[in-house]
Design brief:
The protein is built from 20 helices and 14 strands. The chain is an alpha+beta fold. The relative contact order is 0.07.
Length: 547
């Protein structure tokens, strides 16, 4: 089967010269767009109605687009999340023919059992329960509807053509342009219509979580998976939102189950850097052993090492109540978009910290805090990194999910506990190495400070440096200033040596003296001696000035 990109390219070529006079579908789509006056941009409610008028396939694409707050404004994502696609199930004979076309064998040769009635049906695919012939494993077979890729690519290419012909590029204030919507639907379709992408997500997630107690997810059967077919483990456990999921559980067991869900999400974020982007109640199953299973891996989030480190700093700042630290961390993953107001951003961070510190954690509103944070960054002239926006939306969704299990547990409680538990010996040693590295850089910079200061003073005395006017500087003043700078620089050097040596003393660095690293011991002694010497110089200089 040709790839989405190939079919999209062919559809664009096929529709390049078409207009309302030559294409019936072109006319149908154009009439829908005229109905909503998309030339002036489109509001969230108008976008929802438009997708519903375009058909069930576009309703499904809108649902998927709702999980991308890094691309679309949040109000559009929230509106698209309310879309519901109702698709009539395909006849079993059509489904089996599609499977045979993908795998090259009759269904009876692949499965001992294959249920004709689907367990789920949507506009892009439907799912059937089956039993694999050789392994006897019960599986879920997700089958793409025949012709859906061709239909989507043809419609999208027509919509792109309409954007080009009618200049639908610029939005009005408070709206997105129709072009923005089309671009996101194209990107969404590319990922959603290739089941191999979901298969890779599924396998990666399974490997990350397979050794974590109480955490499960389906495995992918690669030999029964193609671009239009996905075969994975079939589970019958109830979803979090179903009454039977927590029926009979004590209050304590529900609290533990809610914590298991939230803590595993923190593991996905901080340890794996690969997390479920849509953790709503329908995507988490509850097992009889009070464990959980994640399902539906079409939409995932990903963070690199640096992004996970910054996220850890943000969590730590929130837990410690450090507004300055929160601001510094946010600026590492923010992009300037206009006039920058650092004061306003610091004030917003202080407000957020006060909410975290002063509010009872059980009533903490994660959604409100993330909304305030994003809005404060925007007003201060910054845009948050996409990974942070996606993660924030995921945490907000997760908060609603765990509330169905336990009213007591809050995301902020889990963040605080995770931050406290994260100070393992390995992480402390890693942080110590960073401190030592920073100390060495500081020592090198301070070592060069006296000579740079002297050069500057020499230039100042010779008249080579001017502060908007010519100055004659008294030699005695320059000499005193030079001495003060020298004393200050060496005092900083001594302090840095003492701090760096103390950090080294906590390591296992060889050789050692009396169980203490020799380098750390020697540095501490030398730094202390230098500090005493500088103190004596300062006192002697003070006595001389008094005389």
């Amino acid at each position: 089967m040709p790839s989405f990109e190939t079919l999209m390219r062919l559809a664009r070529a096929r529709n390049r010269d078409k207009d309302e006079h030559t294409s019936k579908r072109f006319l149908e789509i154009l009439e829908v767009l005229r109905k909503y006056h998309v030339r002036d941009g489109i509001t969230p409610d108008e976008a929802v109605a438009l997708l519903e008028d375009l058909g069930t396939t576009f309703v499904k694409l809108g649902q998927i687009a709702s999980t991308h707050p890094d691309v679309l404004p949040r109000e559009y994502c929230d509106a698209f999340g309310q879309l519901r696609a109702h698709a009539k199930p395909l006849d079993a004979a059509i489904v089996k023919k599609q499977i045979e076309g993908e795998l090259g064998k009759p269904v009876d040769d692949l499965f001992d059992e294959f249920d004709d009635t689907p367990v789920g049906s949507a506009s892009i695919a439907q799912v059937h329960r089956a039993v694999v012939k050789d392994s006897k494993q019960v599986v879920a077979v997700k089958v793409q509807r025949p012709g859906v890729v061709e239909q989507v690519t043809d419609d999208l290419s027509i919509m792109e053509r309409i954007v080009e012909l009618y200049d639908l590029l610029s939005p009005s204030e408070g709206k997105i342009s129709f072009k923005q919507l089309v671009d996101e639907l194209v990107r969404t379709s590319r990922d959603e219509l290739d089941f191999r992408i979901e298969a890779r997500n599924l396998e990666r997630f399974y490997e990350n979580n397979k050794d974590r107690p109480g955490i499960g997810s389906p495995r992918c059967y690669e030999e029964l998976t193609t671009r239009a077919l996905l075969t994975e483990d079939f589970f019958t456990d109830p979803r979090v939102g179903e009454p039977s999921a927590v029926e009979g559980l004590s209050e304590e067991e529900r609290d533990q189950l809610a914590y298991l869900i939230a803590n595993n999400y923190m593991q996905q974020l901080m340890e794996d850097g690969f997390f479920h982007a849509d953790p709503h109640a329908g995507n988490i199953l509850i097992t009889p052993e009070h464990g959980i299973r994640w399902i539906d891996f079409g939409m995932m989030g990903e963070m690199n090492g640096r992004e996970r480190e910054v996220l850890g700093e943000i969590i730590e700042s929130l837990v410690k109540g450090d507004a300055y630290g929160l601001k510094r961390s946010l600026l590492k993953v923010a992009t300037p978009t206009g006039p920058i107001d650092h004061g306003a951003l610091l004030g917003a961070c202080e407000n957020i910290i006060s909410e975290v510190i002063d509010v009872d954690l059980e009533s903490f509103d994660t959604s409100a805090v993330f909304d305030e944070l994003a809005e404060s960054m925007r007003k201060s002239g910054f845009e948050l990194a996409p990974f942070l926006v996606t993660m924030g939306r995921g945490l907000v969704t997760l908060e609603g999910t765990i509330k169905l299990v336990s009213d007591k547990l809050n995301i902020m409680q889990v963040l605080a506990k995770y931050a406290a538990d994260s100070f393992t010996p390995e992480k402390i040693a890693r942080r110590a190495r960073k401190v030592v590295g920073s100390s060495v850089e500081s020592v090198e910079a301070m070592a060069a400070l006296p000579s740079k200061a002297m050069d500057t003073l020499d230039m100042l005395q010779k008249g080579q440096v001017r502060l908007g006017m010519n100055m004659d500087v008294n030699k005695k003043v320059v000499s005193g200033l030079r001495e003060s700078i020298n004393n200050f620089a060496f005092a900083l050097l001594a302090a840095a040596m003492i701090i760096g040596s103390c950090v080294l003393c906590t390591t296992e660095l060889e050789p050692q003296i009396l169980g203490i690293p020799a380098l750390g011991f020697a540095g501490f002694i030398f730094g202390t001696a230098l500090m005493v010497y500088i103190s004596a110089l300062i006192l002697r200089s003070k006595d001389r000035d008094l005389k």
